[in-house]
Amino acid sequence: MARNKIALVGAGNIGGTLALLAGLKELGDVVLFDIIDGVPQGKALDLVESSPVEGFDAKFVGSSKYSALKGADVVIVTAGVARKPGMSRDDLLGINTKVMTAVGEGIRKNCPKAFVICITNPLDAMVWVLQQASGLPASHVVGMAGVLDSARFRYFLAEEMSVSVEDVSAFVLGGHGDTMVPMVRYSTVAGIPLPDLIKLGWLTKERLDKIVQRTRDGGAEIVGLLKTGSAFYAPASSAISMAESYLKDKKRVLPCAAHLTGQYGIKGLYVGVPCVIGAKGVERIVELTLNKSEQAMLKKSVGAVSGLVDVCKGMMKQAAAPKKAPRKAPAKAAKKARVARKATAKKAKA
Ligand SMILES: NC(=O)C1=CN([C@@H]2O[C@H](COP(=O)(O)OP(=O)(O)OC[C@H]3O[C@@H](n4cnc5c(N)ncnc54)[C@H](O)[C@@H]3O)[C@@H](O)[C@H]2O)C=CC1
Ligand SMILES: O=C([O-])CC(=O)C(=O)O
Questions:
Q1: Atom of ligand 1 nearest to the CA of 96
Q2: pLDDT tens-digit readout, 128-150
Q3: Nearest 5°: CA angle at 211, between 237 and 92?
């Protein structure tokens, strides 16, 4: 059987880490694409030179041409700009909307049957733009954020209670922003819900509240430490788990930014919810019963996503509108020509 083809659009910090993980896990042949010519080629060569040491077989190619994406089974998109200290993810909206529009077009032309995972921020709006620009079915375009936010929540809980991360199951609902909703009631250690663990004395309500807030601020905490960019190891691991579930039809239940068509009362937006990811893409969306306070938090988070998508819609409409011919310059040119004609006629008479 031929190997799968994994295209990584954006060969920066996350792109390079994705490529290494795809190689180590032998998920398939890898194409790294980036607009900076030389970077994807250099990273591809460096990575493939690690294959004899690590013991994996895969082809690695770097390119700055969209045709390199031809026939890809999975595309993971990290193209664009990452934030620096003092910026919010939303500050990236203008520049990254333009990038997602170009990338979507490249995917539409070269690999319309692929399963596409968007990572670029602000995530929930960028995955919406990417789906619109690529025209791929919504079941095949998803956003990665929930796996990462949930991993952070899981890690902080495991550290607090001194238990293995493997036994902590937790997830985060809503948009990938300050208003994300870590789901305390549905998070467990070995099946025991967090509220029960508080009763058992494993955790205090005060510590749990701090962990919830630290999870919400997880991205900013790393940006503040790195200073030159944002997290990339955990984001890459998170996206690879989604790609693996699709390629191996594992049907894992993972929190992803999925296109909602009425679930949770939300229509036409991408928002983080638990999904079943298998060979058919997003195969199912899990709709949980939320209590009043969870509903209110989700509503706030969805409101933030909806506001960003409205800005994207405006930008896309403006970009698609026919350009009006500039009027001032030709008018000036015509006046100049008239004056010149009059002067020539005067000269001729004289
Ligand atoms: N969804 C999530 O949970 C997370 C999202 N992110 C986001 O992921 C994105 C990438 O992050 P990093 O890899 O750390 O950034 P990076 O700056 O290291 O890499 C981005 C790469 O995209 C390339 N690029 C820019 N415009 C392009 C275009 N039009 N076509 C192809 N490539 C293009 C750049 O040359 C660069 O190599 C950022 O927007 C960041 O905010 C980061 C962490 C988590
Ligand atoms: O915070 C950022 O800019 C990157 C990101 O989304 C994360 O690490 O969660």
A1: 39
A2: 999 999 999 999 999 999 999 99
A3: 55
